[in-house]
Amino acid sequence: MINLQGVSLHRGERDLLDGADCRIFPGHKVGIIGANGCGKSTLFKLLLGQLESDAGQVYLPSTWRIAHMAQEVEASEQSALDYVLDGDQELRQLQEQLTLAESSGDTDGHKLGELHERMASIDGYSGPARAAQLLDGLGFSHADQQRPVRSFSGGWRIRLNLGRALMCPADLMLLDEPTNHLDLDATLWLEQWLQRFPGTLLIISHDRDFLDAVVDGIVSFEQHKLVLYSGNYSAFERSRAERLAQQQIQYEKQQAERAHMEDFVRRFRAKASKAKQAQSRLKALDRMAQIAPAHVDSPFHFTLPSADKTSNPLIDLREANIGYADKVVVHQVQLGIQPGRRIGLLGPNGAGKSSLIKTLAGELSPLSGKRQCGEHLAIGYFAQHQLEALDSAASPLLHLQRLSPDASEQSLRDFLGGYGFIGDRVFETVAGFSGGEKARLALAILAWQKPNLLLLDEPTNHLDLEMRHALTMALAEFPGALVLVSHDRHLLANTTDEFILVADGRAAPYSGDLDDYKQWLLGFNRDKRREEKSTEECEYTIRPSEVKKAQRRAAAALREQLKPLTNKLKTIERQIASTEENLNQIQELLADENLYSGGQQEEISRLNKVQAEQREILDTLEMEWLDISEQVEAMQGK
């Protein structure tokens, strides 16, 4: 297991961890959450051995193979397929040894036989096919897989790094923001892949629906400690809300936040039609009313004001062919955006969602047809290139002062405070900002201009969970029109009333909800792969063999033998968690200053006795867990 004991970690004058403890058992899938800059990525470096802790111990089994997702990739002439294959280092080493032995005319048949046997034992001959399947799931076409790495943009190179990490045979996988540059179909594919991953998974993510689908535990950075919660992200939110509710000041804030959200739900219910999508959003808003109290201590609180004047329609596309040069991506689009209309754009990767939203924004002219704008149209357009357009030498305050020279400095600072730019941070230059801080500033600039139509293309990339929640709340109450492209299903479900499906060269209303769309998308991708296989000669084929059948039977038999031991391990893990919780409660009682005000000596003695008993129980359980784990490892190694 992963065991952190009394770990302290400092970077400059900042304390990231101070005497932190955490245990993560083999096979668990855990989400790592916390505010930007709290030390999540630094924790990964600690586990990878790239950093040393300032105090305490970090234990990982020495035999564990670790896969991790790099954040940068150098431009090279290597093909995308070969780059991903490099993730399996043992496979690559065997390939080199075989190539060398065969090219040198080595006549040692025994040596060649051993190399081929090792290759078969690691399923190496199917390696190129497995790499191609990973790239396909991440959105790379068959032709893309042969392109050099240097030819891809930064976001697609990050996908290559993800594919390379998934290719690595691993006992522990560390993934840092894997969905940041993925669209919804690639995100759904990754969910399914990680659900099948048999090892231990630690994943940093700000996508709550993704975490809900993948993890069975949450490690939260709280006041320089690591707090482990059982269950997925939604379960963490409930636990956190209950804990905050025990604090009177926070409880009062909770009640106000809950009342505000429930009032909004009531107003929306009165307006909602019986359309399936409107009802889906109503259910989502009901859930938001319950989870809102878990975020009352968020540093982000803002609204999105709308322009005083509006037009009807705001924008009207008529028989518009959308695309680039002579290539039409979406044909004959008929779309009118009226005030208050809230649209989510759905569709597979490359279908034209971003092209459609660029056309609405006026950044891309229709190849044919018309784009007509209302007299009082005021567009707020957010896309990733907006981050690059920020003036790196200017501060957040200066960005807004350029838009409104007559506005008072205090009003601008108050406005920026809702986006997390507090105190002297409003004077810092953009050059030193993280991607999340730049995204927050771009949203603040957009909101300051009071648009009556928001066009948002993946606005949550780089945003942490608290900022995503604040954005969701603000968009839910935005009085203007909204067109949204996002892989964040929570954001889509809570802010849009209808969907338009962009697929097969068309943009048409979609009557289903996001669960229906997930099934449609999975079916679409299956059909697409089936079509590609029928029209192209498949370069790599995995053929079943009697050897593989025997391996599967042997694996099934081993699992059956291990079942009593693994069940016992799970029971012990639950007992350890319960005992640790008891110890924490006793520690809190013993730390209460009122206990030592006099006359409570018997209670102090009782608590000390119970604490000693619980520690003894914990030691016994941990020894039992280690003994059984050794038995399991011995049986697996036979």
Main attributes of the structure:
ABC-F family ATP-binding cassette domain-containing protein; ABC_tran_Xtn; 6-stranded mixed beta sheet; 638 residues; ATP-binding; ABC_transporter-like_CS; alpha/beta; 5 domains; Rossmann fold
End-to-end C-alpha gap: 21 Å
User: Which oligomeric state applies?
Assistant: single chain
CATH architecture of the largest domain: 3-Layer(aba) Sandwich
The CATH homologous superfamily name of the largest domain equals P-loop containing nucleotide triphosphate hydrolases
Look at the structure and give the CATH class of the largest domain: Alpha Beta
What sort of overall outline do the alpha carbons produce when their principal axes are compared? globular
Strand content: 15-25%
Q: Helix- and strand-based class?
A: alpha/beta
In round numbers, the mean pLDDT is: 82
Number of helices: 21
Task: Compute the number of strand runs.
Answer: 18
Organism: Microbulbifer epialgicus
GO molecular function, one term: ATP binding
Pfam family, one: ABC_tran
Protein name: ABC-F family ATP-binding cassette domain-containing protein
